[in-house]
Amino acid sequence: MTTPDPAKPRDTPLRGVHDRLGASMTDFAGWLMPLRYHSETAEHRAVRTAAGLFDLSHMGEISVRGPGAAAALDYALVGELSAVPPGRARYTMICAADGGILDDLIVYRLAAEEFLVVANAANTGVVLAALTERAAGHDAGVTDQTDGYALIAIQGPAAAGILGPLASVRLDGVRYYASQPATVAGRDILLARTGYTGEDGFELFTGPADAEHVWSALAAAGAGAGLVPAGLAARDTLRLEAGMPLYGNELGPDITPFDAGLGRVVKLGKAGDFVGRDALAAAAAAAPRRVLVGLLGGTRRVPRHGYPVLWDGQRCGEVTSGAPSPTLGVPIAMAYLEPAAARAAETAADGLAVDVRGRAEPARLTPLPFYHRTSSRT
Amino acid sequence: MSIPENLMYTAEHEWVAIEGGVASVGITDFAQQALGDVVYVSVPAAGTEVTAGEPCGEVESTKSVSDIYSPVDGEVLESNPEIDDDPGLVNTDPYGAGWLLKIRLSDDAEPAGLLTAEEYTALTKEAE
User: Fold this and answer.
1) Which of A149, A306, B15, B56 lies most in the core, judged by the most C-beta atoms within 10 Å?
2) Domain positions in chain B
């Protein structure tokens, strides 16, 4: 057995596909991932108008199973996982005792005593360690199953039409944030109607050996419908337009769910203690210490992560994420602002600016998300 | 990857074509591939004095921003009038319609520090 070289990023099961497609690859959280195949703007637009095919095999998958699995997750996470029916999923977070966010997660309840926790690639180790520690004393086993899964996402208004003929189940029976076992192109998968783009779409958890077959079947089925492979660059601009946070930008260990405007994921009403309860109860009751806002850039120079936000020339916050928006045609950004500045900027026509590499560029507040899909969710 | 033989290059991934004391300047195919989709180009106005090796503008793409370094000493004669409305020309035609600047050289001598196509090719291979 060869020892993996810690300096070299890991391949996903779809490495061969990306090479054949001529993808520009990048090291992301220790995985060699496709950044773009040709033009990230074209890939982004395809997801909004047709569909995109994504390799997300770098994400972490952690199994939590046993009679005490639900109770263990109620304790370990801020959400009330015991209230999630089998076949449904929840967006939730795992926090430290001080209320700071360790990761944001989607947790799929596969059965009464079986949960699949999907973590960000960069945080899989931290989440695994925290879940293992917090599950001790509950009748539940925590196992890292990342190597047992590949993850393919098909996202966009055409996604259901492309996937439908290949799937063993009727997709109109799969609700948003639902999951169920199915076969696609003859291979067993876990099918979920979840995503990170703001469009309708599906995430397919496959065995690693089935990943190429399933990808190729989808690519062939979608060729006439405008399906294109899409990389991490497009994934980032899509989620930004959809107002979705990114761990490391909007979320981090010094940020609480309330800071990020995501207090809804903290179920203070659930029975029993959970890690971070006291700190989060205090945060819920306290006046906000920062506000996450959406900004539209007034010029073409793009507000980017870390750039200061100015109110009347004075620093009042910082950009967390920013990019040109292919859909809106202007730069968009999310930023944390001091609450007083956020309030003042709401009612004033100008005064807000972003310091873009030494030059103040005007910006204005806009409600999040920047983009809503128009079709109704099933 | 395209590296035309008849052009000169800089280590900062610009190309230079000198004729009649005027240098035409743009960024290379290597640079535009690395940057991704260009959304905005900022170049100095006509009349601006530029110095070889000094930053004189920016190319902004979806994911990043890169400085443009003047390859020569001189004065900006004109910048590409199409580039403001269509920054994607830098991606689709970096050596042609995607040109960025024309600079009148301040001195008749061949500018120092420029690379041949062969030298630039070697440099890009090292960077990969």
Assistant:
1) B15
2) 8-108
Residue A119 DSSP SS3: strand
B33 contacts A24? CB cut-off 8 A: yes
B37 to A41: CB separation less than 8 angstroms, yes or no = yes
- Residue A39 to residue B63, Cβ atoms within 8 A: no
A306: domain CATH number is 2.40.30.110
Strand A60-65 and strand A114-119: the pairing is antiparallel
What CA–CA distance (Å, rounded) separates A327 from B2? Answer: 31
Determine if the peptide bond prior to A331 is cis (ω within 30°).
no
> Tens of pLDDT along A83-122?
999 999 999 999 999 999 999 999 999 999 999 999 999 9
The DSSP 8-state label assigned to residue A190 in this structure reads E
Asked whether residue A165 falls in the same domain as residue A138, the answer is no
Is residue A279 one of the residues assigned to a domain? Answer: no
Q: Do A302 and B33 touch (CB under 8 A)?
A: no
pLDDT tens digit string along B5-31?
999 999 999 999 999 999 999 999 999
ipTM of the complex: 0.85
Chain A residues lying within 8 Å of B67, measured CB to CB: none
A4: in domain = no
- Closest residue to B62, CB basis, from A41, A301, A357: A41
**Chain B residues near residue A35 by CB distance under 8 angstroms:** 36
Q: Output the six-digit token pair for A13.
A: 């099961």
pTM above 0.90, yes or no: yes
With an 8 Å Cβ cutoff, is B91 touching chain A? yes
Is it true that domain B8-108 has CATH number 2.40.110.10?
no
Tens of pLDDT, residue by residue over A260-316, are 999 999 999 999 999 999 999 999 999 999 999 999 999 999 999 999 999 999 999
Which domain range does residue A84 map to?
60-143
- Measured at the alpha carbon of residue B83, what is the angle toward residues B96 and B6, in degrees to the nearest 5? 20
Residue B37 distance to chain A (closest CA, Å):
6
Q: Choose one of A143, A163, A178: the last residue of a domain.
A: A143
